[in-house]
Amino acid sequence: xxxxxxxxxxxxxPGGYVxxxxxxxxxxxxxIVEKEYYxxxxxxxxxxxxxxxxxVSELKRTIEEAGRIGLKADNVAIDLDKLRRHKDDTVKRxxxxxxxxxxxxxxxKYDGTAAFISEKEIEVTDGKGGKTxxxxxxxxxxxxxxxxxxxxxxxxxxxxxxxxxxIEIPRVPENMxxxxxxPxxxxxxxxxxxxxxxxxxxxxxxxxxxxxxxxISAASERALKKQKMDIYTSSKVxxxxxxxxxxxxEVETPKGKKTFTFDTVLVAAGMKANTGGxxxxxxxxxxDNRGFITVDKRMRTSVxxxxxxxxxxxxxxxxxxxxxxxxxxxxxxxGATMGADWKAVPYAVFTxxxxxxxxxxxxxxxxxxxxxxxxxxxxxxxxxxxxxxxTDGFTKIIADAETDEILGIHIFGPHSGDIIFTxxxxxxxxxxxxxxxxxxxxxxxxxxxxxxxxxxxxxxxxHIIN
Length: 466
Prior knowledge:
Layout: E1 3-10, H1 16-25, E2 30-34, H2 40-44, H3 47-65, H4 80-105, E3 108-111, E4 113-116, E5 121-125, E6 131-141, E7 145-147, E8 160-161, H5 163-166, E9 175-179, H6 183-195, E10 198-202, H7 214-226, E11 230-232, E12 236-243, E13 246-253, E14 256-262, E15 264-267, E16 271-273, H8 280-283, E17 306-308, H9 319-333, E18 346-349, E19 355-359, H10 362-367, E20 372-378, H11 383-387, E21 394-400, E22 406-412, H12 416-428, H13 433-437, H14 448-457
């Protein structure tokens, strides 16, 4: 006999567990199914552990650079065992907190792998082969995404690794290749470079972080090269061969073919939806040509009582976006008319310097058919930027030339992920560059550059020549 619920959530990542808790708050009898670890990739192998590692990397470089202003510290080193313990303790604390929150909310937890039997039922198989049938009036699929496997360089978990293995820091290789210069690739390249590896980044497209604004991409590439990483853009891996504990990788570059020998290669070249084994066809759930589940603005799939959220639906693969989508889906199930609006979705990349942004890039805005205007402000014109050696940073704002509405904000510099929140709030309220320029920033802080960039959109910045 089936266990029955008003809502069953499949997947307990940042989208799924938030959705389940919100549903319980609204009085819905709710269950959640998780095949591995509560908190999903974000808490266990992605957002959280990587930031713990990147924080140590940032501290090390900061201390080393601070010799320029009088802070003397010789032989700054990282204790790998302590670093791993810090990362593991951080993950354990947060994932344990997720489980406790679900229990306190009254959400029933099922450990196992889910597969649809019909549009109203799933079967959950636990680690011992036991099976439980769950019947629900509504479902939310929140199973996330996982890295692509590249046919020309086979993942073995030892010489060729993914982000999941990289986060464990099994060793620090002498020479490391990173295939893919997206956020995961450049963040992990930053970690291993700081730990002492010679890092080479290989990217198929024509720039580092190629989906970001061109000015941000160019600044990031300069920063990575300044940190002595080698970067090959517009370059394609054509073959590889493992030789003992090393690997030869043949790459087609703009200057011809080149063979690299690495101790370790991290493959971070895109993501695919985790839908294998779900048996979506039995429920009638449709996917797009890339395998991501198709949804409407309320996160409904092609089956009205089945919803999907987070990375499994594609678009921006961000934990906070997944959480927001979970709230939208649950509100729809509860009868609200709230819809998802992706105009104000901020992103961050935790390299050094940090990067953050929201909205359209300059290229996207110009290509939308509207007239635009752009304001920039460098950190070298901000008091705290000079005092804290952050002079490579800048803020860039794109606005509609006719209405002054902000279309995009992009920040390159320390604490960008924190500073962008102000811009997110203004964009969420359909604010203008003038609105943002009139919001007071504390002096001296780096957030002054955001205010001044907004003023510069209309050539009214005070501390630079417009």
